[in-house]
Amino acid sequence: MNSKSAKCILCSQDKTKFIGIIKPESWAVGDAEVYDCESCELRFVMVSEAPNYDFIYNQTDTYASMLDFTRKLRRYDDPSWALIGLGHPYYAVLDFLKGKKDLKILDVGCGYGALTYIMAVLGHKVLGTEVSRQAAYMAKGLFGDFFMQGDIKEFKKQLPDERMDLVVAVEVIEHLANPMEFVKDCISVLKEGGNLILTTPNKDYKEIFLGRIEQHKDEIWKMEKPPIHLAIFGEKSMEYIAKENNLKLDIFRDFPGMAQITGSPNLVAIFTKT
Fold first, then answer.
1. H or E segment at 185?
2. What span, in angstroms and rounded, lies between the C-alpha atoms of 36 and 15?
């Protein structure tokens, strides 16, 4: 019987079960131990140090293709439709913004700034933050001076009195070694009644590899390997976040048909600060 255990990186409970070992990305050192938390149902890995995203942005085809796509966005009269083609997490944010005007929005982990730019085009007051110095520099060059380099803590340090109507973190939380601290920081910069939108690969989506489910049914980590992705969230994990932070929660497992159209079976959680 395997006795390995680890404290959950979301709820800090030690009621965790060792699932197995996976190989990390080819450029990373050491195997990664995978655990399931019985309290919040998070699946996670432990890492010894935070990943360097300036390095990671130069290592993966995903970020290279995103930069190429982002460079083309300004060609479109309505760039939002081009962005939706990348996956339904973006559709979820733009759907939430329908009928809303002049919101103060913080886009955390904005990457090269595509979503930040589109929300600004839609008439909102938007600031994008990105930990990668390289990506933040590129975003400024592509779209203008409404980006800053740093994480949510850097935003709080530089603008301690700023309060937002909406904080957006698209495909960010699965990268973090302390996701609950991140959520608390996001909530702290929201106005009362403001919203936090988190999107992330969906642990509960049974066909995460779509037509290849049988081939991959026994895999324990159906997403990008550590140290890029560190956790897999499902609905129960989002409910735990809401309960611990006194938030109202709306969950969208999938917009009808979007996962099949885009190949992006992501979880969308919309929290309201009460």
1. helix 179-188
2. 9
CA distances from 238 to 11, 84, 197, 210, 260 (A): 11, 24, 11, 23, 23
Closest alpha carbon to 174 in 104, 89, 113, 247: 89
In the numeric block, the tokens 């995103």 are attached to 66
For 73-116, strand residue ranges (E) read 104-108
Identify each DSSP E strand in 98-256 by its residue range: 104-108, 125-130, 147-149, 164-170, 190-201, 231-232, 247-252
> pLDDT tens for residues 239-259?
999 999 999 999 876 555 555
Q: Which of 158, 67, 147, 154 is nearest to 107 (CA)?
A: 147
State the pTM of this model.
Answer: 0.90
Q: Write the DSSP assignment of 17-43 as a string of letters.
A: EEEEEE---TTS-S-EEEEEETTT--E
The verdict on whether omega for the bond into residue 227 sits within 30 degrees of 0, i.e. cis, is yes
